[in-house]
Amino acid sequence: MIEISSETVLYYVLLLCRIGGCLMFMPGFSSPRVPVQVRVFIAVAGTLALSPVLLPTVAQAVTKADAAAPVQLLLSEVSVGALIGLMGRFFYLALEFMATAVASCIGFSNLPGTPIEHTDPIPAISSLITITATVLFFITDQHWEVMRGLVASYKAMPIDQAFATDFSLAQIGDVMAEAFMLTLQISSPFIVYAISINFLFGIANKLTPQIAIYFVSVPFVMAGGLLLLYSVISDFMRLFMAGFMHWLTNG
After folding, report:
1. Are 51 and 41 in contact (CB under 8 A)?
2. pTM score
3. Spatial separation of the C-alpha atoms in residues 232 and 106, rounded to whole Å
4. What span, in angstroms and rounded, lies between the C-alpha atoms of 212 and 77?
5. At a CB cut-off of 8 Å and minimum separation 6, what does 226 contact?
6. What CA–CA distance (Å, rounded) separates 116 from 148?
7. 3-state DSSP assignment of residue 123
8. Cβ-count burial of 222 within 10 angstroms (0-12 exposed, 13-18 middle, 19+ buried)?
9. How far apart are alpha carbons 36 and 54 in whole angstroms?
10. For the segment 127-156, what is each residue's pLDDT rounded down to a tens digit?
11. Which residues, in sequence order, are bridge partners of residue 76?
12. How far apart are CA 62 and CA 14, in angstroms?
């Protein structure tokens, strides 16, 4: 029998705070379609799997702390884990935002879809893009990269240091800028398409005011948008996953 002391339990709880806080917001793991019990089991399993590597670091940090520090450590670890998860989540939120803009650009914004990732319905094209990105997150083994990042986070943000609010806000701002710039770049063909096609039909409307050009143009706009989506969707998803992987690796 191996005796489990209160200090050992504290070490594992501290690990669970950071790992569970990260998985609570990280894309894929935090999906509402994944039952809460399953998410808890994943967090506990991840904690137990990483504990042989991280337990000495946690034990050394707790040993240096005073008697009143465990509560502060718990709050700090939850905050650090939530920060890491939120930064990853921002990429998928930016993708969902631009996917909704893409649906609007090609004329599909008025067609409500089935709620999949959220309780509110979003356009079907937006759901298709976000679900594809989530599936690719696991197919390309980026969930393992998340675990590697969690291990590396104990060097970047040591457990015995207080949660740095200024540094965290700066990191969030940088990640939001990077995420929205990435999604704006990969969505630019649809924005150019929307501007061009609406400009052309606007000119046609001026030349033939007797005809309701808007109602005539809708099927052509949708057909051209679907053709464009078919042509660029593979590069669209590949570039997004490459940008997200670059952040996971170097962020």
Report:
1. no
2. 0.85
3. 13
4. 61
5. 106
6. 29
7. strand
8. middle
9. 25
10. 889 889 989 999 988 888 888 888 888 888
11. none
12. 10
